[in-house]
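User: Hi! I'm working on a homework problem where we have to compare a predicted structure to a textbook description. Could you give me the structure for the chain below?
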Amino acid sequence: MKSSRPKSAPAATTPAKRTTKRPKSSAARKKGLRYIPTDEDLISSKEWLRKYGLNPLGLNLDQLMSSHRHASEYIKITGHRIGAKYCDVFPKVKVRGEKVHMELHHHELVQYEESLDHVISRYLSRWKWLLLGPHRVFGTILEPAIVLCVDTSGSMVTVMEEMKRELIALIWTVLKPNNIKFNILQFASVVTKFQEQVSDPTLDMCKAAAKFVGELQAGGNTCTIDALNAALSDSEAVATYLVTDGKPDTSCKAVLDKVASMDSRQKIHTIFLSQGDKEAISFLKKLRKETGGRYHCCVEGFEGNVVSHQLLSSDLPASLQGHSENSLEIPEYSGDDLRLLSREIKRARRFMGNSQKYRDLLAVHSGTQEMANLKLQGAEMVPKINPDAVSAFGV
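Assistant: Happy to help. Predicted structure tokens:
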């Protein structure tokens, strides 16, 4: 028999309240600042900046400035936009095309600049590390088992001795200390292997490899397609580092098609030892993109030594070295690692200059000076409506 007890009415459901997350304050963002180790990691600049770039460290000044947007309303009767009641109390700046209120205090900007200066100095130290020693020629070695595929054709005669010297240095200072398995393959008209496949970097193996490198001679054609075929056939290798000074003797398209058809799991990192050959650079960049590798262009030793030494030995803070008339600017690099790191250094120095100008704006906003002509690099100052308004910061 069914129960006659009346069913209870369903509980009334109230719509969930929409909550809007408040933007993190500058103090909360500073908690994300992490210590950057002084020891250099054998990782790409892309991976390194994912951990120690300005964004993960909480030092992106544009984000710190963009948390509080300027509010205004259009009044039909007057035909003008009127700001919120207390908008004029805070200085306004235009960041990436959007008006925002500057709610950072003077002392917060000073602390920001001190943190940023330490980070820029650390960036310059890694930049110097990438420019000196075998890293300057071969870039950063990332994988635990590699094949060094070295071009020894006739066109390499002008760089052969330097390349051999740096390759031997790579064996003793990078491969052996980091226990990276390797093999060396030299190619010209024919392909010659140091050994059949990659092996552990024992003392005897490294001595034999250094002897093999020391006996390399430049001469013959550039059979890139045969060399890559031999390198990619090593099932124990994780990556191939192609070291060359130009295009293959066959068509570039034939090499790219051959690599695509092999369906190898190896990455191909391309290393260019020459300058100015746009067609060769285009080919090497396409080849590394086809396999998920990196492109590295060897920087001439004199340039790397002089620029890094002058930037790092200056008495000026690292962030201010780009503002004097006689200061050295960081050159443009085409190689992936140096290009990404140099771009982040330039971005940090721009943030430093903007922060200093923001502090000037706070001082101006607390007085009666006109702001109409003030400009920022990468951001435009917005004149306040009431020049006599006093800043809430009392700066």
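For your comparison, note the following. The radius of gyration is 29 Å. Confidence is low (pLDDT under 50) at residues 1-32, 73-80, 320-326, 368-395. Good luck with the assignment!
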